[in-house]
Write a structure and sequence with these properties.
The radius of gyration is 20 Å and the shape is elongated. It is of the alpha+beta class. It has eight helices and five strands, in the order βαββααβαααααβ. The protein is 48% helix and 16% strand. It folds into two domains: 100 residues, 2-Layer Sandwich (Alpha-Beta Plaits); 64 residues, no CATH class. Strands 4-1-3-2-5 form a five-stranded antiparallel β-sheet.
């Protein structure tokens, strides 16, 4: 689909509360659903976060990645997803909570892989913020320097956020993709707060 060639990936985080005693059935059903849903057009990946062993929590996390907003909407309107909702309803305590991931959490959350270490995200963010601010300081700032202090900062910082969100950070994360993800597979799953299952 040519229209989606330059679309920004969409990441959705869903939380489900599972009834006591239904945990294993839910996990098995979800893994099966993952395998089927990854064949859908525009679905880039899916992951599951489960409570750590010994935890009293009944919340399970699901993270889905889509090629675009249109692909996300098509997936959630599909017969496959409607079938899944009926299948999992008896295992859940309530309707799921869902939200899109925005900002830096979405930049670093790619292809169902775990987030890079915090220090790597900090360095990548710094590499994006510094040139953005310096460029605007040399180009935009001289044009609006005579403005009221509040208006000056509102416009300047708005431009920083827009450039970081839609231009700079997508470029930075693509350029540093190999380095950001390097070594992630060596991290023992038992060391994670929640075990993370992915399907490629």
């Amino acid at each position: 689909m040519t229209a989606n060639a330059h679309a920004q990936p969409i990441h959705v985080a869903i939380t489900r509360r599972i009834k006591p005693g239904c945990e294993q059935e839910f996990q098995a059903a979800l893994k099966e659903f993952f395998a089927r849903s990854l064949a859908e057009s525009g679905v880039h990946g899916a992951g599951m976060l489960i409570p750590p062993p010994g935890s009293a929590s009944n919340e399970y996390g699901i993270i889905r990645s889509f090629a675009s907003t249109a692909d996300r909407d098509a997936f959630y309107a599909s017969p496959l997803y409607r079938e899944w909702k009926k299948r999992v309803a008896p295992l859940s305590n309530a309707e799921p909570d869902a939200r899109e991931l925005h900002g830096l959490e979405a930049f670093f959350r790619q292809d169902s892989r775990p987030l890079p270490p915090t220090w790597k995200m900090a360095i990548a963010t710094y590499l994006g913020v510094v040139p953005t601010i310096m460029t605007l300081a040399l180009t935009l700032a001289p044009l609006i320097r005579s403005w009221n202090f509040v208006l000056y900062n509102l416009l300047f910082n708005a431009c920083v956020v827009v450039l970081l969100t839609w231009v700079v950070m997508p470029l930075i994360t693509r350029a540093l993709h190999g380095w950001l993800q390097a070594g992630e597979s060596k991290t023992p799953m038992s060391k994670r707060i929640s075990r993370y299952f992915t399907l490629n």
